[in-house]
Write a structure and sequence with these properties.
With 105 residues, the protein is mainly α. It has helices at residues 5-16, 18-34, 38-56, 61-70, 78-88. Helix 1 packs across helix 2 (18-34) and helix 2 (18-34) runs antiparallel to helix 3.
């Protein structure tokens, strides 16, 4: 999976900051658990990650530098959201395929 510059900055940052990683893990797990389907959860996580990125860009040096270099125009965090869902949550069981009469397809 390929991450854009902003996603990569955020991912690298949380990998190096245990408290921040745990905060985001809790948020991702809570959103996924409360969502009826994964696509909706990913959209919510995308928005949360961008809010987090904006917040950190005012105080954390790596984000301040990234904001100066690339600006703070809204950037998709969807790839990172999908990656974090895969890394930090248990896979949801798939619904069984519908069996026809007599148990066959």
């Amino acid at each position: 999976m390929s991450l854009n510059r902003s996603e990569q900055v955020l991912y690298d940052y949380v990998q190096g900051h245990k408290d921040e990683r745990q905060h985001l893990q809790h948020k991702v797990r809570t959103i996924v658990a409360a969502s009826a389907e994964v696509h909706g959860a990913v959209a919510r996580i995308d928005a949360e990650l961008w809010r987090y990125y904006e917040e950190r860009s005012a105080v954390a040096p790596v984000f301040v530098a990234a904001a100066r270099a690339y600006g703070l125009k809204r950037t998709s965090m969807k790839n990172l959201a999908e990656l974090l869902v895969r890394l930090w949550t248990e896979p949801r069981p798939r619904k069984p395929a519908h069996a026809g009469p007599g148990g066959g397809p």
